[in-house]
Write a structure and sequence with these properties.
Blueprint (H helix, E strand, L loop, with lengths): L6 E6 L7 E5 L5 E4 L2 E4 H4 L7 E4 L2 E6 L3 H7 L9 H10 L7 E5 L5 H10 L4 E6 L2 H12 L7 E5 L11 E6 L8 H4 L3 E11 L2 H13 L3 E8 L5 E4 L4 E4 L9 E7 L3
Parallel strand pairs: 7-8, 7-10, 8-9, 10-11
Antiparallel strand pairs: 1-2, 1-6, 3-4, 5-6, 11-15, 12-15, 13-14
Length: 259
């Protein structure tokens, strides 16, 4: 049952370009849309999946996913796409109760996926050298309700640091190879190191640095491709979308070994 403080996604029921809105439920609160005013009191007490009738249409009340949150974020940096974030978390086996780290917080896209995956009992340590980016990410994460599972730190990850043993660490900035040797000591045995880079030169340097580190074993290097389709069931038409993400970046995966 939805209560005051629950975070919901209101999704427009429409055949063409449906819109959605994410907000926290407040007693006597309301949210204005082109379909009319959404009365929070009409949603409190309902369940996810409930249909609410507005003045000019209907909405479905849904539980927002990390992908949904990203669409509402204020972006000040290039972010990892949702598909890349989800696959990176899957490769590292991120789940409830784990402790993970990331460097290159940016706008908080990967941070959201990590915090979502480790919640409610795990924790994320997020590092960035740019205070403005970190503050923006903190504001973005307020919308998700996951901020209690995250520690934000203004820090250059290329310098030595200490945190509790981590199950995984994610490097999402242009020169991850410069931080591999400082991150590795903070990984628990069998812990995962994930680097996300856009250019082949960065792949070469990162892989070389991993192979030079006796505590790391390279596992895989790959990219993710996605092709969306436009579908019209009434006319039995399906064709590739003209707008697609052809390329985003390359994921490098290594694990911590105990020698």
């Amino acid at each position: 049952m939805l209560t005051e403080g629950s975070i919901v996604r209101a999704f427009e029921i429409s055949d063409r370009n449906p819109k959605s809105w994410i907000f926290k439920l407040l007693k006597d609160g309301e949210y204005s849309t082109h379909l009319g005013r959404i009365d929070h009191n009409a949603i409190i007490g309902q369940e996810y999946g409930s249909v609410i009738t507005l003045t000019k249409g209907e909405i479905i009340v849904l539980r927002p996913s990390p992908r949904d949150f990203l669409r509402s974020f204020r972006l000040k940096t290039q972010i990892m796409y949702a598909d890349d974030c989800a696959i990176a978390c899957s490769v590292a086996g991120i789940g409830n109760g784990m402790s993970v780290g990331e460097a290159g917080t940016g706008s908080g896209a990967l941070t959201t996926f990590l915090a979502w995956a480790v919640a409610p009992d795990g924790h994320v340590y997020s590092f960035d050298i740019n205070e403005k980016h970190l503050c923006n990410a903190q504001q973005n994460l307020q919308l998700t309700g996951l901020q209690d599972n995250i520690t934000f730190k203004i820090f250059d990850i290329r310098e030595k640091f200490t945190v509790p043993p981590l199950d995984a660490f994610f490097l999402d900035f242009s020169t991850p190879f410069e931080a591999i040797d400082t991150v590795t000591p903070n990984l628990a045995g069998g812990g995962h190191l994930i680097c996300f880079v856009p250019n082949w030169g960065q792949v070469e340097q990162s892989v070389e640095k991993i192979q030079q580190n006796s505590e790391l074993a390279l596992q895989q290097v790959f990219e993710i491709n996605r092709r969306d389709f436009n579908i019209n069931p009434k006319k039995h038409i399906m064709r590739p979308s003209f707008r697609s993400i052809v390329y985003s970046g390359i994921i490098i995966h290594a694990i911590k070994i105990l020698t």
